[in-house]
Design brief:
Length: 443
């Protein structure tokens, strides 16, 4: 596919296709190319399976897949060409909208369009694995197709970007390496902070849009910092905390002031097919795959039996491998007894899992490494170590200026359960995110 870079609308100069299969598939490919040639980029982004089928005079249900395959190929090529060569003139009313195929991003797109903006949808294909359930993933080929249908149903152009290589290198490989090292990472923070949203912001710039809207539950404070969403139960400030202030200045969160029931009600009222779709619970690249199976298949981290011990070193049982266990875990230890036991620590080199009663899990502080502070350390009064976990009252152990710091001590107001090394520590001043880092150890 060739785009004319001199055209203010990034017109498609030429397109071609290569296909083998049934006659309907070849005909659909030819029809897609005919629809593309000479068409402005954003008009081409409105072409879907329905238009391709109409161009062929209609297709039977048995042959509908041919139009869908042609539309998938068209949009994969269109997204790649737009990402590499598009240079649309700036348009003040144009907003790129991240669409995952779920209800939140669909309603975000609806609100952007209703607000009078020229909304353009974009979906990223981040992961492809035959072992996964693509319908449970927000970044699979199935999710891309569903998001495109939603966008077209709202009258919006839609682009998709194949970001699988970048996602593997920038997110999954780090997640695997951290698990092999005995850490408990949060890949969503890395994905949002350095892979996914950066790619969409870059595309927005190429499409002449300064802003990117998403379906996250968060708010922007003073134009450059994150603030907790109105619906604290759905708040996603934690997983967005690694975003640079420069990126936040260009982000819009239409759901930030809303609660989930309101979002679903809007989706029902607008007749969106995803109104009742349940939220995804797994990491997107797991999508129905067991974590231990994924670690073994993609990271070579398999079963390695070893002892479960107490803090004195007494052997209490056996585990199948230290890497799947995380600090604070209670279930799945396979150890009987009167009092419940919790994982206190893991050591992948010694291949041990140390357990004990809950009181041994409590600590009054923790060490955080690679810390970024957007404000001086004296403003910090809260800490969150899980995406939807409790916020703990705290202060920093040192007087620090805004900036980067290799190690920071965090003192908790009251003892709390230890946090697994590798998890993100999100630092708050009231409702505002003022810093983040990675948990190194307990205090």
């Amino acid at each position: 596919m060739a785009i004319d870079p001199e055209s203010p609308q990034a017109r498609i100069e030429d397109a071609g296709f290569d296909a083998s299969g049934c006659g309907a598939t070849i005909a659909a490919g030819s029809a897609a190319v005919g629809l593309l040639r000479g068409t402005p980029l954003l008009a081409a982004a409105r072409i879907g399976a329905n238009q391709i089928a109409r161009e062929l005079g209609g297709l039977s249900a048995a042959k509908r897949h041919a139009a869908e395959l042609a539309a998938d190929a068209l949009h994969r090529a269109l997204g790649g060409a737009a990402r590499e060569r598009a240079a649309l003139a700036p348009a003040a009313r144009r907003t790129l909208v991240a669409m995952s195929g779920g209800v939140d991003s669909a309603v975000a797109a609806l609100l952007v369009a209703r607000g009078g903006a020229e909304a353009v949808g974009v979906t990223l294909e981040l992961w492809s694995d035959p072992e996964n359930d693509g319908d449970l993933s927000c970044c699979s080929a199935q999710a891309v197709r569903g998001a495109r249908e939603l966008a077209h149903g709202l009258g919006m152009p839609h682009l998709s970007i194949d970001l699988r290589a970048e996602f593997r290198a920038g997110v999954v490989d780090h997640w695997l390496a951290d698990h092999a090292a005995g850490l408990t990472p949060n890949p969503c923070v890395r994905c949002n902070g350095s892979v996914r949203l950066d790619a969409m912001l870059e595309l927005a710039e190429r499409l002449g849009s300064r802003t990117l809207a998403t379906g996250h539950y968060a708010r922007v404070h003073d134009g450059r910092l994150l603030r907790v969403a109105a619906d604290e139960g759905k708040d996603q400030s934690y997983v967005l905390s690694a975003l640079a202030p420069e990126s936040l200045a260009r982000l819009r969160f239409p759901l930030g002031e809303m609660r989930k029931p309101e979002v679903r009600e809007l989706a029902v009222g607008a007749g969106l097919a995803v109104a009742g779709r349940r939220d995804s619970q797994d990491l997107c690249f797991l999508a129905g795959t067991r974590q231990d199976a994924f670690l073994e298949r993609h990271g070579g981290i398999g079963a390695r039996p070893g002892p479960v011990v107490d803090e004195e070193g007494n052997v209490l049982g056996e585990h199948a491998g230290a890497h799947p266990y995380t600090v604070g875990q209670r279930r799945g230890l396979g150890i009987g007894g009167v009092a419940p036991l919790y994982v206190l620590a893991t050591d992948v080199r010694a291949n041990t899992v140390t357990v004990g009663p809950r009181h041994q899990l409590l600590a009054r502080g923790l060490s955080v490494r690679d810390v970024t502070l957007h404000r001086d350390g004296g403003s910090v009064d809260g800490l969150r170590v899980r995406a939807h976990g409790r916020k703990f009252a705290c202060r920093l152990a040192q007087d620090l200026n805004a900036g980067r710091h290799p190690h920071v001590g965090v003192v908790l107001q009251a003892a709390a359960e230890r946090t697994a090394p590798g998890q993100l520590a999100c630092l708050y001043s009231g409702e505002v995110v003022v810093g983040y880092g990675t948990v190194a150890s307990r205090g």
